[in-house]
Amino acid sequence: MTDYTNPSAELRARVALEKHRFRNTHSLGQNFLLAESLIALLLDDAGIAPEDNVLEIGPGAGVMTRLLAQRAKHVLAVEVDRGLEPVLEDVLEGMENAQVVFQDIMKSDLRALIDEHFGGESYRVVANLPYYITADILLKLAASDCPPQSIAIMVQKEAAERVMSVPGTKQWCALAAELQFYGAAQVLTEVAPEAFDPPPHVMSCFIRIDKYAEAPVNPLDEKVFRKLIRAAFAMRRKTLANNLKATFGFSQEVAKAILSAAGADEKVRGEALTLEELCRVSDAITKMA
Ligand code: SAM
Prior knowledge:
This protein has 12 helices and 9 strands. By secondary structure, the protein is an alpha/beta fold.
């Protein structure tokens, strides 16, 4: 017999969205995932275990949040849209280990959130976010002073291809280099537009990035390394020497001396370099300072 005294998370969300007459805001990328069977598969792939603290970014109607709370130790969901408050209250009813805070994740103090809600313990991120903030949020998490153990996130298929790209290819970019410095990425599942409500116009991929126990390179100064990565891809048609001049304010002679100290060709383009080569250039800059 079906038990309607304990409705599914999906049913709770559908009823709450209707009851509170919620209207999706297109500009906030509110394409919701409501199908529990799909979300359960995604959370299996995300590897969420009972001992995990989970930061969910953009809970929307909260179906994934409720399922996360059933699997994890503690769930903190950060949602920018206060209009979702009554919906989330209904959907998360009885889930004592799930909290929602209403703020823009791009303006959040990650360290303060983690300390306050997870007592500074390690945590994982799960997110289905608007695609226009994918790169910014990934960079914010990966470069943070309290990076998550893993990030499982829904991204546009093209973004997944960029994240997985390797040096020397057209897709190799600052985002890929930064993320490869943080962890190992894998594409878990392709998700068709019809899985979302309303459907977006693009194919999506659920990807997971696991933080390395040990970073693949150890730059002398991480800030210089990250600044160099941005510089290397800033103007793709320019040589790295020219990008170094523009970003770091070096003279032509100094830029050439840095490349030579790093064993790189003076005409090399930034996007041709591997993470190791970028690290050597970064260390040459640090030593020169
Ligand atoms: N995770 C839910 C799901 O799978 O159904 C909602 C997904 S919907 C694609 C994106 C959610 O992120 C929306 O609820 C939106 O309001 C929220 N959002 C958008 N920008 C945000 C930001 N800067 N900070 C926090 N949440 C944001």
